[in-house]
Amino acid sequence: MAPKNEAKASDAAAPSAEPRLEVKKPKKKKVLLMGKSGSGKSSMRSIIFSNYIARDTRRLGATIDIDLSHVKFLGNLTLNLWDCGGQEAFMENYLSQQRVHVFSNVGVLIYVFDIESRDVDRDLATYVSILSALLQYSPAARIYILVHKMDLVVPASREAVYDERAEEILLFERTSFLAVSSWTSAEATRNPTEDRLERMSNIMKHFKQSISRFTGTPRNAEQFTRMEHKAGTRFSLFILKFTTNTYLMVVLPPGEGRFNAAMLNCQIAIEHFKFLDAPGGLPLSV
Fold first, then answer.
1. Positive or negative CA dihedral for 221, 226, 231, 237?
2. For all residues of the chain together, what is the average pLDDT?
3. SS3 letters for 129-188?
4. CATH number 3.10.310.20 given to 30-152
5. CB atoms within 10 A of CB 35
6. What is the pTM of this model?
7. Where are the domains of the chain?
8. pLDDT of 216-243, one tens digit each?
9. How many C-beta atoms surround the C-beta of residue 85 within 10 A?
């Protein structure tokens, strides 16, 4: 009987099972709600997720730093919502000391612009800085832009609010610099210089001749890829090489932020029009 008891004792001494490795749950992706102070971020959040009605949002105070909340949505979905205060001091802190903490592991950025803002250039500069931080730490994040308080704009004027930022867009043939396509805002139609397209064509021809004379390049050669002109408080314009055979000119109201944003958007658009240079590409005009 002794051997049997020894066997039982040895069985009891043996480890019952290997220790289990704890699997760490992946961090929840953040939903960042950002925008200038007073743009209406917290009001929108309260109306959508807390069943507030519009008049109840008047008693909401300004968001201090970051307001974290976990919102249940569509049954079993939980949103990790970060409502970020929009005061300048907080924005600077997000982009410097809290940069990694705020912009890492972001799934969605919802950025709110206030249609009533009087400092559009600064708003755009802040937005560009936030995009840079997001690209650095969460390059796969989706971005949604909301233009808030459009209901405060007179309905007949809403289209004008969208269009007033650009006055004129022109597409020129590269060699002759003749306009082959154009778009003009309502504001630009009041321009008293009706022959401005012909004047612009002549100016650019003289400019290209001067380049040819001083550099020794043929007149029909590609002599520049970009030109900028800022006429103080009157207007700004830039000319970009658009396709192999065309140049794009954009005329804007003055403002550095607006100018840089338009320039960047046009440079991005160039990539989508490369098919025009390919054999069998669509004609520029019909």
1. positive
2. 73
3. HHHHHHHHHCCCCEEEEEEECHHHCCHHHHHHHHHCCCCEEEEEECCCCCEEEEEECCCH
4. no
5. 27
6. 0.45
7. 30-152, 163-276
8. 777 666 677 888 888 877 788 899 888 8
9. 19
